[in-house]
Amino acid sequence: GWFRRLLHKPKPRSVESSLNASFFSSSSPSSSSSAESSGSFFFTSLARSFRSSTVSDINFFGSARWAKSYDVCICHSFFYLELVEELVSYLEGQPESFRCFLQLRDAAPGSAVVTELCDAVQNSHCWVMLITPGFLRDPWCKYQMHQALAEAPMANGRTIPVLKDVDRKDYPKELRNLYYIYMALKENSFRQIRDTITRYLQELCRSSTSRTE
């Protein structure tokens, strides 16, 4: 008896045919109206789901992100200010809305340079070191680089060296244990910087969540 019932069991319909049957099978006006409203509800729900997933992607970093004032501090010489402003505009315009510290814009007027540089390092999750000829000559850039290395000796993605117009042989010895981004195509380099910051903040969120659990 069970074998006979198994043979006569109706076959399941495919997902596509189920959707078609649900939305478009009937030809009567009332059924058609119902199908249209059902289809509208389906696609509205799909759109809402997409929007909510996008919002969750933007906010996926979690509360650990807000433990510091900035997501990234940009360390640079003033000879490349225009390039740095483009980078900051790119990062702040991303869906993640990265919070950037730019010295000329965000440093408090009248404050000591040493204090501002130290605060910028301590209150940022990541540090982008734009290694240029001017950076190598600027004692304040080197000071900020040493502060970042002292803050996170093992680095673990927080210090992001970016080489621009500098030979590899001139790459600072203090950073030799870190991989760097070589800025050839600006768009690609900006994307790499963004991805590196994102990776660190994701890992920060995961480790913070695991500790609370």
Automatic annotation (TrEMBL):
Pfam families per the record? Answer: TIR_2
Q: Which SUPFAM superfamilies match?
A: Toll/Interleukin receptor TIR domain
Q: Which GO terms describe its molecular function?
A: Toll-like receptor 2 binding; Toll-like receptor 4 binding
UniProt-listed PROSITE patterns: TIR
**Gene3D superfamilies recorded:** Toll/interleukin-1 receptor homology (TIR) domain
**Could you tell me which InterPro entries the record lists for this protein?**
TIR_dom (IPR000157), Tol-interleuk_rcpt_adapt_Tirap (IPR017279), Toll_tir_struct_dom_sf (IPR035897)
Q: Which SMART domains match?
A: TIR
GO BP term (any one):
positive regulation of chemokine (C-X-C motif) ligand 2 production
A GO cellular component annotation here is:
cytoplasm
Q: What is this protein called?
A: TIRAP protein
Q: Which organism is it from?
A: Circaetus pectoralis (black-chested snake-eagle)
